[in-house]
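User: Continuing from earlier, I have the next pair ready.

Assistant: Great, send them over.

User: Here they are, in order.

Assistant: Folding the first of the pair now:
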Amino acid sequence: MNLLIVDDIATNRKLLRVTLKAKGHTTLEAADGVEALQILARETVDAVISDILMPNMDGFRLCHALRKSERLHALPFIIYTSTYTSPEDMKLAQTVGADKYLTKPAPTADVLEALREVMDKKAARPVPSAPVVEETYVLKQYSQALVHKLEEKNAELAQANQTLKRTEEMLRALTQRVVQVQETERGRVARELHDTITQMLCAVLFRSQVLADKLPARNRLAKGEAIKLREMIGKTVEEVERISRNLRPIVLDSLGLVAGLRDTSTEFAERTGVSIKLVCVELTRRLPADTELALFRILQETLKNVEKHAHARHVMVHLTKPCNIVQLTINDDGIGFDPAQHPARRKGKGGLGLLGMRERATYVGGTLTVKSVRRAGTEIEIRIPLPPECHGG
């Protein structure tokens, strides 16, 4: 038999085509009812197997159009659907003239049995001369089915939105927990570095100084190596202290946000040679600890991206407090990037760092926006609402 498969999903058409061809049938394919009618106008087929939910013209309307056709009114028609499966849908399928109704995914044996049934029962149908009331009745039933299906889809969508909302809340809670654990671990490592590693390195530095001093001047080569060793250990101590400060900013904890931003900006400028200007509004009281830490970490991550990727010569940092919001704006004159590009595809451009910064801002109820143009620099703006006790200063 030559069969017409009508389905807007190519994978569904392929599965059915392979099944039917394995049994010796030939097939034609259409993506909707309009395309099916075009094929039927020029090709001869033995039966139609059609989905219902399709663009342009669905399966119900296609079947009704065939039953009204003088040439095609007797063509066997099988509805094969995974969406319209209620008793009302089956009743409408009978009303519009479908010969068989199958629910996806049906076993191969069921599809073949349905074909045998419709072909065995095929008989000459009278040329339709239905009165207007019959057409009106069909349209009414069809409209009711569509409304019912729309209501079902709306309910499914509402349920999906609720599920998505719960998932987002769970992800946000998980992110908050990860940030908390991360900061706790950073504090622990910073204390270990300061209390153990730094102390041990200082002791080694002292002993290397004693060694350099005790070596006789005539042993110039050994004395020179001892001095180099002392200098290397001194630089290692400085680097460990810098890492410890970055892990848990003591200045931020002790002196507040402005001092913390100034400290990390100064260290960045001295280490990289990039000019950085910091302008901060006067804060008469401390901000919430989570807010201070979020802004400090975002500045740290931004400066790291500037150092690694931006190739900037100047960075401008503004801390302002418009109304009841604290705002941190960071501008650089680097090479910029495309903010619309997916972070995972932004190789070497700090994309995943931006995701982390956004999560930190979200964690404290704030927002982070990025404006960037290639070869024209980048602007990052963080806005965080403040609790009522921080509104005054």
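And the other member of the pair:
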Amino acid sequence: MSHDVKILSPCGMLGYGFPEESFRRGIEQQVHAVVVDAGSTDGGPHKLGAGVSIVSRRAVKKDLEIILGASLPKKIPVIIGSAGGSGARPHVEWTLDIIEEILQEKKLSAKLAIIWADFPQEQVLDALNRGEITPLTQNIPQLTEEAIRQTNSIVGQMGHEPILEALEAGSEIIVCGRAYDPSPFAAVGIYYGKDPGLSYHLGKILECGALCAEPATTKDCILGTISDDHFTVQALNDCRTCTAISVAAHTFYEKEHPYLLHGPGFMLDLQDCRFTDLGSGVVRVSGSRYIQQPKTCIKLEGARLTAYRTFVIAGIRDPILLEKLEEVESAVTAQTKQYYPEIDEGDYQIRFYNYGMNAVLGDREYEPFRGHEIGVLFEVVARTQELASSICATVRSTFLHYGYEGRKSTAGNLAFPFAPSDIEFGPVYEFSIYHLMECPSDSFPIEYRQGGVHDGEAG
């Protein structure tokens, strides 16, 4: 029987933070790798389009100082998935800059593997012309040449294959561009000869940190151990524990099908999985099946600039206004449009979000309003920033002084928490590419470099 493989997941997102004591406990388990996910599309397309990170540089550096400081001296490889949040070149380079800074400050040296996940427009256009691109889901339109040419940042989700190659090359730090979230974890198990079904299922659980524990959080560590015919999961903080229910429940997390999970070139069948409490907060999982697909399709993600936004936040406590709020908002919108007849109404949009009333569900809200105050956020999204700000200012002044029936005070309808009240958000992006593309697994180039201090520089 071969040895078990242990993988430490510090947190659900690099930069979210984790208790250092939990991490130290994990390192003491003689883990084979520290793997952390750094990306997500949960926050929408802005980070990919703008080339900025989901979390702060300070937070990422704080996490990496702990991870690299403990792992590199013990020769434990560190793998970062979807570096910088979206995994495009600017995000990867941002992450590499932080890593290099830490290595220099700690006088450490490491062999780095950088796996790029960017796809040029022409390569995507060629695939489109060959009929090799399809929408990810039925509600996504067919991809067009126009959409591709308007999208400057396109990434694809890598599978485990390039990460496996980097491990085989003896890399000490592997920085991945956009990756299928479980792939960096699965690569470790596969590298050590473990079953790919178990490896990917464990990766699906570990990539969110301790979200599979009770109480659940992404801001704590989790330990996964792969054996020949099962894997186990356990929390590393005394205040949390894993149960069969919590681990099984997380298996269903972010899935459109209860037991089938599609990845780059494979499908994971979890129909026959078994979740068993072993005691002491350790859960055993078995029965995961990896099914190779006839062709490899990767998910492409691309974001294009569509508009600019300005918004205002204000409070409303007048019960008379609250009774007819949506009626007043419609009137404010109409007056604003009447004030600017020279501006094409297709060049901007005005939206109101009444928090405490129906901002979350909108027309689907089923609870009657019972509150005494709300927070209203109104925004203008327009073709230019100047246009968005100009129209938003008119909406704000019209709303502030609108004379609705029954109004008793003319001092103003809105309570502003900030001055200035109008906030220029800046560019607005949309996912212009959210499609599957037929693509060989070797489409992700690997760059090797030596990071940190070199011979003769230490000390």
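Worth noting for the second one:
The first strand starts at residue 5 and ends at 9. The chain has 13 helices and 19 strands.
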